[in-house]
Structures are given as C-alpha cells and as structure tokens.
Specification:
Length: 450
C-alpha cells in the first residue's frame, strides 16, 4: 500500500516539539509518510499549546486555517493534539466540528493507532481522548528530529508541581515526573551518535529533576555524566526555578567545559507582595542573592530571565521596582509577558485587575530598557574570541554564515553572523567578535595556525 502522507504542525515550546518528534517517528513506524507540505497531506495533525491566551489564539487560528484543507485539498482528517484538547476538550469538541479527533498529551505514543483507526472507518465518528496526563517519554520511544541535525532538545522530565497561581500547566501536564538518569544518558548517547553537537535540557521545572525518584538523582549529577558523552560539544540548561538554583549546580556548570555558561532563570517579578501572590518561593533578596551567586561562581555566565507584568495588584510603584531591578541586574537576555488571566488558576479572581493597555505599556517600557542593556552588553564583547556553532547560511553578504555563541540559545536569543570562506552546519569555529547590534553579534573566523 502507498504510505499515507501526514502533515504535523507543532506549536508552543520545545517540550511540545519533543512530543511532536515522538509522534512523527511513531507515524513513520506505523507506515505513514510524514510530509512538510500541508497541501499534499491526507491527514493533518496540529499539536497545540494552551499556556496563555496568545498561545491559545494561535492554536485556534492554525486549526481553522488547516481545516480549509478538508474543504479545498486532499486532507481527509484533521486531528488536534496536545495541551489545548487536554484543557478544553469538551468545549473544543462542540466548537470545532471540523476536527475529527482530539487527543491529549497522554496519547502521544498511540498517535499511529488512533490515526489508523480513523482512516480505516468508512464513516468515522468524531472522538475525544483526553485521559489524565502521565506519559513520560523514554529512550525507547522513537524520535524523528525536526531541529537542525547538530542540535536537539532533551526532555528530562514532564509536568509541574509548583502551583504558581498564574499557571495552568499542572492541570494540563500533570504532576512533576523525572526520567531515570540512565534513560536520559542513553538518549543523549543516541543523539550524539546521530551527529548532535548541542543538547538542550528542558522540562517545566528542570531544577526539580530527580526529587520524585527513589534513587534521588540530581541535576548536577546528570550534567556531570552528560558532560562525558562522546561527541557532544555543548550542553545547555533551560527553565531553572530560581529557588532551587544551588551552588552545587553552578559549580558543575563552572567545572565542566561542555556545559554552556548560560542559564535561563525565570524570576517573573521582584516585588515581594507580587511574588507571594504568584506563589513563587523566595523573596526579592533571595533572587538577588541567587543571581549574585551565579555570577560569582561562573564568571561571565549569560543569564536569561522572563518577567510577567500586569499581575493583579501590580501598582505603579511595584512596576517601577521591577524596572530598577532590570536596570541594576543587566540580564543578557530577557523576555516579558503580559499577565494572562487564565480560568482554572488560583489567580483568576485576584483583585485588582490591571487594564490591558497598561500591561502593554509596561511590557514595552521593560523591553525598551532591555534593548539598551542588550546593546551595551553586546558592544562590550567586540574584540573577544568565542566559539561559534554554525547553523547555516545567512542573507548577509558580508557575513555569509549564521551561528550562535555559548551565550545564545536557539530561537529565543540573538544570533552571531560570521565572516568565513567556508563553514558547515554543526561546525564549531573560533571567531573574533568585530561588531554588534542590539541583539546580534558579528564575527570573523580566526585563521587556523600553521
């Protein structure tokens, strides 16, 4: 039989992308053909995000856009997977008759059998499968990579047990659960054997790794073992909960050459009242102490954070305190979210609410400040020598290649444009930074010593 072409679109975070890669590989093993051409697909899958309102709106927009393929194209069935069905299953079932099948995250490893059942029925009934989420991938699950061949995300845990009052993730993804260390190492070895040079560790709360397992493995212990994986050049850590940022973890990052001197530490806010209302562990002093500790143990570490503006009760004074914190701390990279009031969260009915236009104005003020900080930090790097992981060709004729330094994570940070005669994706080049813009760096390859 001819393999049925399937198009899979994954939205949201890298953790969602890993689920999509498992689904793609499962479909291939099930006899399907995964295509990147949506118009030739006979089945279309949208792997959705439902974290905050903009993510939900993007998911709905893409579902409706791709539903047109059922009316105008070859598509016979439209499937929606991931967080949106888990959160709004019954409502979606009623509101989106164009969709034939809704699946929650628990059904990731069974996508092939679900789709085969759908395609084999002459007149299939619309279905909804959203059991309680407990799925945790292992090294035995296949993955069909969607990232460049030289880098991959490595999901070491799933779910979250922090119960931040603004966040719906525990309801969608379940309680925090870690993968055994040996299983993670086995997948890392498999990725390295496929030519992956950079692995990026992800989880909803990566610093909780191992706390739920009988053996009590730790993130520093895992990183130390990963640093010994043959073939890997960089190991990057995202989503570190600041209250659990320990000296042991930082010393491990400082000690191991292959671990990127980079940390993503989402602090969310700096006002003690707001932090308490968010149910974030620790105080403003604790956050400042952790940042100082990171910079003292790992000199030159690149720090990224994310902030939420417009949370209920954020007065002008509390916001000015946040502005001063950003100005004083000088993060290398920073993202700002406007507070999204999400049903099902503890903060849903918190007063007083902030007007949307005020939230947007505060976000813009923070990003304007961060732009000036980022430009200053980048200019300070001119003349320094950095290893650059080449991603591919750029459109800049003067700097024909594009890559990243150790201080730049893919998709969320700036990039480094490289002047060189030749370079291949996945190649690591020693480069001198020659100029800088607000978010990006410009470098030239250092000639090899003869």
């Amino acid at each position: 039989m001819k393999a049925i072409p399937v198009y899979l679109l994954s939205l949201g975070c890298p953790k969602n992308l890993v689920d999509a890669e498992v689904m793609s590989a499962t479909l291939l093993e099930g006899g399907f053909r995964v295509t990147n051409r949506e118009k030739e697909a006979e089945a279309v899958i949208v792997n959705t995000c439902a974290f905050i309102r903009p993510a939900k709106e993007e998911s709905i927009h893409e579902i409706l856009r791709l539903a047109d393929l059922k009316r105008k194209g070859k598509c016979r069935h439209l499937v929606v997977t991931g967080c949106l069905p888990q959160r709004y299953g019954r409502e979606l079932f009623s509101a989106l008759p164009e969709v034939d099948l809704f699946l929650g995250p628990e059904e990731v490893p069974r996508i092939s059998s679900h789709l085969l059942a759908l395609l084999s029925e002459p007149s299939p009934k619309r279905k909804l499968h959203v059991p309680r989420p407990s799925f945790l991938m292992t090294a035995d699950h296949p993955r069909h990579p969607s990232t460049p061949s030289h880098m991959a995300y490595l999901k070491i845990a799933d779910g979250c047990s922090n119960r931040c009052t603004y966040c719906i993730i525990p309801s969608i993804r379940g309680s925090f659960r870690s993968r055994p260390m040996e299983d993670v190492l086995r997948e890392a070895e498999s990725l390295a054997a496929r030519g992956v040079k950079e692995v990026i560790l992800v989880a909803q709360d990566i610093t909780s790794y191992g706390r739920d397992l009988k053996e009590k493995p730790t993130l520093p212990g895992l990183l130390t073992r990963l640093a010994g994986t043959e073939g890997l050049r960089w190991i990057r850590v995202l989503y570190t909960y600041p209250a659990r940022l320990t000296a042991d973890l930082l010393e491990t990052i400082a000690r191991e050459d292959r671990i990127c001197k980079y940390l993503d530490v989402p602090v969310q806010h700096i006002d003690d009242d707001i932090l308490a209302a968010m149910n974030r562990r620790g105080t403003a002093k604790d956050l400042r102490d952790k940042i100082a500790l990171a910079r003292s143990i790992v000199p030159g570490i690149a720090l990224r954070t994310s902030l939420i503006v417009g949370f209920p009760g954020e007065t002008r004074g509390k916001f000015r305190k946040l502005l001063r914190f950003v100005e004083e701390t000088r993060f290398d990279h920073l993202g700002v979210f406007t507070y999204s009031r999400e049903e099902g969260t503890a903060a849903f009915d918190h007063p007083p609410r902030i007007k949307e236009k005020t939230k947007i104005a505060r976000r813009d003020a923070l990003m304007k400040l961060q732009a000036s900080i980022s430009a200053e930090i980048n200019r300070s790097k001119v003349g320094t020598i950095n290893d650059v992981l080449i991603e591919g060709r750029s459109r800049n004729k003067s700097f024909p290649f594009i890559g990243r330094t150790m201080g730049q994570a893919p998709d969320i940070d700036g990039v480094t444009f490289v002047r060189a005669r030749e370079a291949c994706p996945g190649e690591m080049l020693a480069c001198r930074i020659v100029s800088a813009s607000t978010y990006d760096l410009f470098a030239e390859k250092i000639p090899a010593q003869r």
